[in-house]
Amino acid sequence: MTATLKSFNYFSYIINSRLHNSPILSYRRRLPRSQPPTSCLNSGFRFFRPNHLFCTQSGSLMEVFKAVLSEGSNACDRIAIKADEKSYSYGQLTSSALTISKLFCREDTTNGGESKKYEGFGSLKGARVGIVAKPSAEFVAGVLGTWFSGGVAVPLALSYPEAELLYVMSNSDISVLLSTEDHSETMKAIAAKSDARFLLIPHVVNSTTETVTRNQFQEGSFEGDGKLLADDPALIVYTSGTTGKPKGVVHTHKSINSQVRMLTEAWEYTSADHFLHCLPLHHVHGLFNALFAPLYARSSVEFLPKFSVSGIWRRWRESYPVNDNKTDNPITVFTGVPTMYTRLIQGYEAMDQETKESSAFAAQKLRLMMSGSSALPRPVMHQWESITGHRLLERYGMTEFVMAISNPLRGERKAGTVGKPLPGVEAKIVQDKNDADGVGEICVKSPSLFKEYWNLPEVTKESFTEDGYFKTGDAGRVDEDGYFVILGRTSADIMKVGGYKLSALEIESTLLEHPTVAECCVLGLPDKDYGEAVTAIIVAEAGAKRKREDESKPVMTLEELCGWAKDKLAPYKLPTRLIIWESLPRNAMGKVNKKELKKSLDHQE
Questions:
Q1: Could you tell me the domains of the chain?
Q2: How far apart are CA 89 and CA 86, in angstroms?
Q3: Which residues lie closer than 8 Å to 188 by C-beta, 6 or more apart?
Q4: What is the spatial distance between Cα 475 and Cα 492, in angstroms, rounded to a whole number?
Q5: Per its UniProt entry, which superkingdom is the organism in (predicted)?
Q6: Among residues 221, 230, 228, which one has the least CA distance to residue 120?
């Protein structure tokens, strides 16, 4: 949006949560008070409700692991992580984290750069620690060990090319690089180029270590982290860079704790839950929704090494066999991005009838399935619901505040919306004074808001309104029921065509209903007459493509597409250009970088 802050009209109707049917442009829900802690031993350890976990005044996820040690062997032995067909308990993770924390005190762990000795727990004093590891118990132990030592964890992607890895390490001034044995040689070389120390994350032992861990606790091994404050930085997550160079988003112990508490309460995570995790760990979706919040709730998290259509369907069938025999550790929660659900649907359709029936039966048994990180096309939502019986829970978040708005766990999940603000969150639409259609920029105020962009004070300041709301850069509106509708990035998804402001996401959602269209991306490309031209880039469905090619026909023409869409879209929303590709360029979270794509296509014209 190009107008200045003072040129906006602010609509700020703060309403009571009972008045959901009132039209709103600003909405606030209060965070419920936490209840007194309940011991796992007193509850029979069947499950924990979220409020059982908020048992200390320190705003840190570390408190959950510290509390585990004081609650007896049942808590210590409870499975936290499953990976590579091995199980790791909460006690084992804590023990490994303490071991890593001790490594920071050793002088003989330097690789390149200046030798530096840290004096004890909590003594990193905010130093940034890069963590490079596949989804594993070692990754989790690395994050916890960094926090126990007073450091700031910076998750790095194994998929990063060397130049991007070095950029992030330099930008965040990483002084220590943690990695696992399978990547040690590569990461040692990277560390040397950046003058960071290299430390090897020890294997997390998957055998009983409860006694040793509790003894460590009793001997005061956590003494140093008492120096940490709730507002101290704990985590730096880099943005995906879809609107520019990746920025380091700094979260504090307090913002992390606020978010995981918010999610466990909203989605009712408990220790009875078992998550199947196949998301990247350098994005907030994989970190918070599917890892930190489940661990906060004492759930179990099972890592798949990478997304696998056959692997996911198989794991669900193993969890819930058609003979209804009980199995160990059945999956109860799954969260993914829309492209994952598209691939899972394609995998389902390729199955024989018997496997289809057993797969659908198993999927129906899960407690919760969620989608996020990009817009969920309505056809995908409806098709998934017809197969599994699950209406996917869609929500809205960003690196800067993680999750802020969500469809309800219990209640109507409206297709095409992301729901209402989570407890404790305020969200509003800030309209340009010239707009009268209810569309504007979504602005958010939340206890989970980030502290700052790393080393970018001016950018941080410009990202907030005068009254403390974070400006998301996303256009949206609120429907008649108070549900937020995301129309896309103001910089990439809002097109100005002949005086109209059009949502690329709305047009994409419609075009995806066409049986020949498997994937779709809509952009506004420069047009001398209308300002921008609605340009559709499509990937054809494989079967339809083969059929058209066998008939010596083009996969699709612009006339055919518009002829089909004219009854679904207003004339000015119809594409005027059509591009057919074999695939769309997506990042690890399934997003298309439209800004870069527009630049590329502009240069080709």
A1: 494-604 (3.30.300.30)
A2: 10
A3: 111, 198
A4: 10
A5: Eukaryota
A6: 221
Beta bridge partners of 92: none
Total count of residues recorded for the chain:
605
Alpha helix stretches (DSSP H) within 395-522: 457-462, 504-511
Q: Which phi-psi region, left, alpha or beta, contains residue 487 (left: φ > 0; alpha: ψ -120 to 50)?
A: alpha
pLDDT tens sequence across 132-154: 999 999 999 999 999 988 899 99
- Find tokens 């350098």 and name the residue: 282
Q: Are 465 and 473 in contact (CB under 8 A)?
A: no
- Cα within 13 Å of Cα(527), Cβ side: 18
Three-state SS across 346-364? Answer: HHHHCCCHHHHHHHHHHHH
CA-CA distance, 432 to 360, in Å (whole number)? 47
CA dihedral 237, 242, 243, 247 (to 10 degrees): 20
- Least confident stretch, 119-128, 339-348, 459-468: 119-128
Work out the number of other CB atoms within 10 angstroms of the CB of residue 463.
18
CA distance linking residue 236 with residue 379, whole number of Å: 36
Q: What is the pTM for the complete model shown? A: 0.78
